[in-house]
């Protein structure tokens, strides 16, 4: 995760999270050509059911004849689906601030799926507007694919890669591991289901949209959209290694352009390393931050129809951004966050568009993949002659990345090491570490064993996530997925962590040398989540990222070892063992958050009534605000629909010109009294034409008598933009 994490929260998650959540309260198979290329799609229509939920309806009739590649090298398909979770009263994922709970929507979150196949194999790449892809999500999506007779013959966990953009402005509570649900009052099933169903649907759409096509690749440098936020750690790397690179962050953007054989542009995906943390921890509106906005801008340019089953899809995927901030102006201040987000988003959009438009180098070669599970809690690493460690988060974890979004109170400073906790020179920190360690040692003796402490070397463990447990399961996953997806002469390395700049460079270089591919990219935050991955040298300084490198000082060497095995297997055409299967912890989940009890409105009012009407006229560029009597958005998240529509009059009809996914609008929920809800809608009229408009709000309310949930709508008076 990132940056700001309340020290008190982290400490309570430590010592006791025992007490914390006992009650509950970012951190950073070969088949014939025709059989495998199979079903391109069935006739479908997308509708909204009576609850406003987006449904994918199939006629049940698939194409009788599998698509032929013809003269094209690949089958290509894209799909996009809404994954926007509860827009009120759910803790947000990323900053681990208990006070940061959703209160509305700035932009919707999306799952963007890409399927590419050749004559024998297919791979799936998904970029989702999420803080992380937790193991629970990959497991649940894999189950849905396995249960789908149309998808199961072609896709398994081995050739499906799920990656998160790492927005810090989405609802959380969708992990199956304790640490990552600690600040969301446990597991939030509503959010989990929306995410799983949306990712699955985007893959289904991509599958049904498969057509013969070509892929083009391009690369370029984006030099003014990021900076290193952990220079102290980066500079610990050998000077000879650092001098090989032009900057202390990766500035290369890699773009894929997907085009159908008939010339139709299908989609774009790019990888560029930068944290989506322009929007800081004071924000309570759901959104995709700079990467989500960049996707919106690209898709708007290409005329994307978010309600269509077939449309252009543009993903701004994440790479080795573990120590890379977009906050060129200093930490997010809660005042200029969105303006700065817009700048960084536009820089990524403009660079991606330029590379896309000039892309003329075709991707060539076979499609392939390798996937395995590895237990990182005690993995022997031959290159260093020792093992990794059961997971643990260091003292500096509590400081957050102060260069990015500073914490209000430091419990420990960044750079806190075993040696710095000296009773003579640093008695206060030494006492805190000793007290916490002793308290945790009573509960989990393994956390204070000499072998555990020595294994983590410079790191004084604050939260022993690999040995602490309430139910027999560790607080973070010990078994993690390692995966390489090969699309012609491009290799995509799926790493389940936030990868520092130099750590990413080392793994990328290793794999590229083994596979001898022209292009290699890191897809960070993929398939699972284990916090950070730094180099051994960076780890020694115990900055926030090093303290969050869970499996100890040899974690990167372990990754290099395991990725080397996969790369060698791909090069030689050999298989790899599947590895130990991670446990499914579905039945171990608990939530301490109540659902919606009931909704109400004042006497003589109805749901959807307007509390505050817009003014009759506005000048172009003004912001229009209206307030409605509404209900709790948890009643129905309106997947594929919208809580807010801006409608423009065209003669006797009205046309929707903006929805709650558009950055020109905001939808904000606020509790009023015990069961009343006020909905504030805001619309920025900049770039919209003069004319007559109105605002529509829709939602669902829950009866306190019957528990029934019913739809409602409200519309403002007309107003003009002059």
UniProtKB/TrEMBL annotation:
Keywords: Hydrolase, Lipid metabolism, Sphingolipid metabolism. Its EC number is 3.5.1.23. Belongs to the neutral ceramidase family. Coiled coil: none annotated. Residues 563-721 form the Neutral/alkaline non-lysosomal ceramidase C-terminal domain. It catalyses: an N-acylsphing-4-enine + H2O = sphing-4-enine + a fatty acid. Residues 74-561 form the Neutral/alkaline non-lysosomal ceramidase N-terminal domain. This is Neutral ceramidase. Transmembrane segments: none annotated. It is an enzyme of class 3 (hydrolase). It comes from the Bacteria.
